[in-house]
Amino acid sequence: MSEAILKTVNVTRRFPVAGSEDFVAVNGVSLEIPRGCLAILKGRSGSGKTTLMNMLGALDFPSDGQIFFCGEDITKWSEAKREMLRREKIGFVFQSVSLIPMMSAYENVEFALRMAGIKKNRKERCEECLKLVGLGGRMHHMPQEMSGGEQQRVAIARAMAHRPGIIFADEPTAELDSATAVNVINLFREMVEKENVTIVMTTHDTSLMGAGDVVFELEDGRLL
In sequence order, which residues have a C-beta less than 8 Å from that of residue 218 and are 6 or more positions away? Predict the structure, then answer.
């Protein structure tokens, strides 16, 4: 594995609590995520892993500390520059699949390309991504015509369509049965190898830990 695509230095996130001390969700976390790997953030509910992921993905600012993406401190960037980073260089897969219900699988994936400002070869890229997730024959189905596992695979195809450097997946297997969850993890491993993408996923499922190239465990906001 090569140099770090993401690095944090003493990252802390506090949230104000009325009439009390601030709640510290993430506390002094320093880590490095190598380029081209599957990294897992593990921890129980409330451990701070989703808060940390939101900061890594430029969706939230730390209260203290620095976050470096490809060597640049993104905590100093304007919100407009951070939004461009999210659109062009980052993909997201959320626990709630959040597909656009009035769009087919193909249209959901193409929408990500349009948001990223990609105009060339959109049809070929959409078909390539949907075939990679095993849905080449269902690309014109609507979300409501698909199972939960199929919808999650569309969401993964959408997240990878614009060839991001990194994909963040927050509890992507939480709503899936065990066999489907394993299929999603195997798909992530295939994407790391074929697309040379870095994937960072959160999970509290200990049975999935062996799939990660690197595993970071959080407890009460601290890195163990």
Answer: 26, 29, 41, 42, 43, 47, 48, 49, 52, 224
| Residue whose C-alpha is closest to residue 135's, from 155, 116, 159, 154 | 154
Q: Judging by beta carbons within 10 Å of its beta carbon (0-12, 13-18, 19+), is residue 115 exposed, middle or buried?
A: middle
Provide the terminal-to-terminal Cα distance of the chain, rounded to the nearest Å.
Answer: 22
* C-alpha 223 chain-centroid distance: 19
What predicted TM-score, i.e. pTM, was given to this entire model? 0.90
Measured distance CA(94)–CA(152) in Å, rounded = 9
Residue 21 is classified by DSSP as P
Token pair belonging to 133: 């997730």
pLDDT digits (tens, 9 = 90+) for 154-191: 999 999 999 999 999 998 888 778 888 888 888 899 88
* 70 alpha-carbon distance from chain centroid: 16
The domain ranges of the chain are 4-223
> Distance between CA atoms of 49 and 222, rounded to whole angstroms?
10
CATH no. for 4-223: 3.40.50.300
Local structure of 24: helix, strand or coil: strand
Place of tokens 């060597």: 71
